[in-house]
Design goal:
- The chain has 13 helices and twelve strands.
- By secondary structure, it is an alpha/beta fold.
- It folds into three domains: 80 residues, Arc Repressor Mutant, subunit A; 101 residues, Periplasmic binding protein-like II (D-Maltodextrin-Binding Protein, domain 2, 3-Layer(aba) Sandwich); 104 residues, 3-Layer(aba) Sandwich (D-Maltodextrin-Binding Protein, domain 2).
- Helix 9 links the parallel strand 8 and strand 9.
- Helix 1 crosses helix 3 and helix 6 crosses helix 13.
- The chain is elongated and about 80 Å long.
Length: 307
């Protein structure tokens, strides 16, 4: 498959004719016909219905042409970036992020981004998704790195681009009575004190709601610092909560000081980029988000595995 073949089928679809397409592209009509026929053979499909009246895309042809348009648009964007001298860009990007992404894909993404954009200043703030949504909405953050849960409701006007998914888990210290368990229900977890994130985290609302079904939750501490949360769990019989992504390659998990627990009531957590569709994003901002998507894909393929 070659780029010119994609250009040809788009032009034929737009003009409805091989002859007109060849004229507009300044390519001999037999050359276009041969290129399209070769593509159809390669894909083992018929892209166009040919007749004396012209050329009409088949149903599968319409889908292929739509993908061809998207591919060429992406290539156009890459070409624009390649024409830019990134070192001449002086900008400031404000990013709000949940702690999990700040400790997984963000550091590598920032490192690679800064190699191309040395004069762009990054201001990164850790917070919960509820606060991040506000920051993106009011413009104090150019974009946010947030979590979405399958138990939440979201504003349809928010633009969310998925990075990867995880499963909500609990975790305990190695001396906890639950340390020998692999799975626990919320009813079982409700018998123990919990350490939760602050009010700006949507996960906190959910955990309290879940545990409240079995009595008043015993909250040992509330903190926005994941390190403090983990140390409290290791030192007590309290329970912490977070997505499995939060526990991947965690040093306390690897050395056995923290034991992950699957929650019987399986719930999904999505990680993604949140932007405001009513605000324009700069070239540097777009480049950083694309780097995050690349790092997310790498993280999901190489590191993300169920504990």
């Amino acid at each position: 498959m070659r780029l010119e073949q994609l250009k040809y089928i788009i032009e034929i679809a737009d003009t409805g004719s091989f002859t007109t397409a060849s004229s507009r592209l300044f390519i001999a009509q037999p050359s276009i016909s041969q290129a399209v026929t070769a593509l159809e053979k390669e894909l083992n499909v018929t892209i166009f219905k040919r007749s004396r009246l012209g050329a009409e895309p088949t149903d599968i042809g319409k889908k292929i042409i739509a993908h061809a348009r998207a591919a060429l648009n992406q290539i156009s964007e890459i070409t624009k970036l390649g024409e830019t001298n990134f070192a001449d860009i002086h900008d400031t990007i404000h990013v709000s992020t949940v702690p999990t992404l700040c400790s997984t894909i963000l550091p590598t993404a920032v490192f690679l981004f800064k190699k191309n954009f040395p004069n762009v200043k990054l201001i990164i703030q850790e917070n919960g998704s509820k606060k991040i949504r506000q920051n993106v909405q009011n413009g104090t953050s150019d974009f946010g790195l947030v979590t979405r849960h399958d138990y939440g409701t979201y504003d349809e006007s928010e633009q969310f681009q998925l990075l990867f998914e995880g499963k909500l888990m609990a975790y305990v210290g190695k001396n906890s009575p639950l340390a020998l368990e692999k799975t626990a229900t919320y009813q079982e977890l409700a018998a123990y004190p919990v350490v939760i994130f602050g009010d700006s985290f949507s996960l906190t609302d959910h955990i309290i709601k879940r545990l409240s079904a079995y009595g008043t939750p015993m909250i040992l501490s509330s903190t926005q610092n994941p390190e403090s949360m983990q140390k409290l769990v290791m030192a007590t019989d309290a329970i912490g909560f977070g997505p499995d992504v939060y526990l991947v390659d965690n040093p306390y998990v690897l050395n056995g000081d923290i034991i992950p627990l699957h929650i019987a009531e399986k719930e999904t957590t999505q990680f993604g980029i949140l932007t405001n569709p009513n605000r324009n994003t700069s070239t540097a901002c777009e480049a950083l988000m694309k780097e995050l998507l690349l790092q997310a894909d790498h993280f999901e393929r190489i590191h993300l595995k169920m504990i």
